[in-house]
Design brief:
The protein has about 450 residues and is α/β, with parallel strands linked by helices. The protein is about 40% helix and about 20% strand. Strands 12-13-14-11-10-16-17 form a 7-stranded mixed β-sheet, sandwiched between helices. Strands 7-6-5-8-9-19 form a 6-stranded mixed β-sheet, with helices on both faces. It has a 3-stranded antiparallel β-sheet with strand order 3-4-20, with no helix packed on it. The N and C termini lie far apart (about 55 Å). Bound molecules: NADPH dihydro-nicotinamide-adenine-dinucleotide phosphate.
Length: about 450
């Protein structure tokens, strides 16, 4: 395995993969750790989790540089990611005990209640796009619930994977409570099938979701899937157009365009369409593309060579199918995997950009005549992760909240994950929820206890 700087294509460091013997040793350690770890108190686990948060906060610059060097996000956003991880650690350190408290239920027995018990070792298969946040939002609740974690991180971010393992150890968690498996995706099915592993979570592409879901199904194991999205961003005539257009630019290019909840399809009412397109184009063209470690850069490279090739193909084929290029539509010449902030309009249903998730800084514009049409178009996707709707009409807000097929609807704001709110999708965006009380209850045995 190796870390490659996406801004230059240079190999930064090589890592020895974990072979079968090392994987076996780590699985054995996870299984051996669990019986003692589950008996630790919430107070002990909270102390360790809060300490992990302190380390993340104290070392956010160094950690941010690691993320930027391995996957190309801007340093500012990488530092903010480390801070957000510290927040989710503090959040669960503070609230986990309450979220998992016994719940009394009235029955004919003298006493009945629900108890939330840990399951055991949980495997997390994670992506590179938010290389710390995706892991911490799984690990903070899972470890606070008394489970132990095994991380199979994306193969292009081994440095982040090992750093996260080190943070939990330094925070005081027992050896074996959280371990990284440096393995490729081919090893995942075998780990899922291992009887010591009790559940699985994946954040990644739809294709990986199918494979992990299949393997979990075969082994009859609980699985949470957080997959792709092609989130709609609807703009109605009553919206504050200036705020909508500015947020649209940010929402599309966040993380260099590689976020599952980035706004990808801009569905705009015809009365404000021309002005919105003009502002979006101007906003995209004003962005500074360059070295993500430099101050003032808005958009860095895509994380992998494959990523930039995929986006290039999707745009080229969409233009060939009849889409109009509003701006961009090309790689940035020179070293690294940069793609210019771009926009496509008049996209026909046959174009890849209409159906597929575009994981890069490419905005897709659509013109509609009514809220009905906006909702129908927004829902004409296999995905259903987030959605954003811009309107000051209370009736329209209600309709969007009720009728958009998505795990989240944000009104007059961009979609963002928040430790206090549930996060997840419907349709091919996956199933299960992370964060809040909902996330911590995904990997527990909801046990009925009834005392006669
Ligand atoms: P992948 O889904 O391929 O990778 C995510 C994780 O899944 C990685 O750890 C990867 O391991 C693992 N994985 C991949 N294939 C399998 C498999 N067959 N069985 C088990 N594990 C597997 O994402 P990519 O990096 O290839 O990105 C491709 C597309 O995925 C993007 O264009 C985007 O559409 C989507 N994506 C969505 C994300 C989201 O946040 N929803 C995040 C990342 C990607 P390994 O790295 O070793 O292959």
């Amino acid at each position: 395995m190796q870390s490659v700087n996406p801004a230059t294509g240079e190999v930064l460091q090589r890592y020895q993969d974990h072979g079968p013997a090392e994987v076996e040793a780590r699985l054995a350690r996870a299984a051996a750790t669990f019986p003692n770890y589950r008996r630790t108190s919430f107070a002990e686990r909270s102390r360790w989790m809060a300490r992990a948060g302190e380390l993340l906060d104290a070392e956010k610059d160094r950690i941010g540089r690691l993320m930027t060097s391995e996957m190309g996000k801007t340093l500012k956003s990488a530092i903010a990611e480390a801070e957000k991880c510290a927040w989710v650690c503090r959040y669960y350190a503070e609230h986990a005990e309450r979220f998992l408290a016994d719940e009394p239920v009235e029955t004919s027995a003298s006493r009945s209640f629900v108890r939330h018990l840990p399951l055991g070792p949980v495997l997390a298969v994670m992506p590179w796009n938010f290389p710390f946040w995706q892991v911490f939002r799984f690990a903070a609740p899972a470890l606070m619930a008394g489970n132990v974690g095994l991380l199979k991180h994306a193969s292009n971010v081994p440095g982040c994977a090992l750093e996260i393992e080190a943070i939990f150890r330094r925070a005081g968690f027992p050896e074996g409570a959280f371990q990284t498996l440096l393995v490729g995706s081919a090893a995942v099915a075998g780990v899922i099938a291992d009887p010591r592993v009790r559940a699985v979570t994946l954040t990644g592409s739809e294709g990986a979701g199918v494979k992990v879901g299949e393997a979990a199904g075969r082994a009859i194991k609980k699985v949470v899937l957080e997959l792709g999205g092609s989130d709609p961003f609807i703009v109605m005539p009553s919206a504050d157009l200036d705020a909508a257009a500015k947020t649209a630019v940010t929402a599309r290019v966040i993380n260099n365009g590689q976020s599952c909840i980035a706004a990808k399809r801009f569905i705009v009412h015809e009365r404000v369409y021309a002005e919105f397109e003009r502002r979006l184009k101007a906003g995209l063209e004003a962005l500074r593309v360059g070295d993500p470690a430099q101050d003032g850069v808005d958009v860095g490279p895509l994380a992998t060579a494959q990523g930039v090739e995929d986006v290039e193909r999707q745009v080229t084929e969409s233009v060939r199918a009849g889409a109009r290029l509003v701006t961009g539509g090309r790689r940035v010449p020179g070293r690294g995997w940069f793609y210019a902030p771009s926009a496509l309009a008049d996209i026909p249903p046959a174009a890849p950009a209409y159906r597929e998730e575009v994981f890069g800084p490419v905005a897709l514009l659509f013109k509609v005549r009514s809220a009905d049409e906006a909702i129908a178009l927004a829902n004409d996707s296999v995905y259903g992760l987030g959605s954003s709707a811009w309107t000051n009409d209370p009736a329209e807000r209600e309709r969007f909240a009720n009728e958009l097929e998505a795990g989240a609807t944000f009104v007059n704001a961009m979609v963002a994950s928040d430790p206090r709110l549930p996060f997840g999708g419907v349709k091919h965006s996956g199933h299960g929820r992370e964060l809040g009380p909902w996330g911590i209850r995904e990997f527990v045995n909801v046990k009925a206890v009834s005392i006669q």
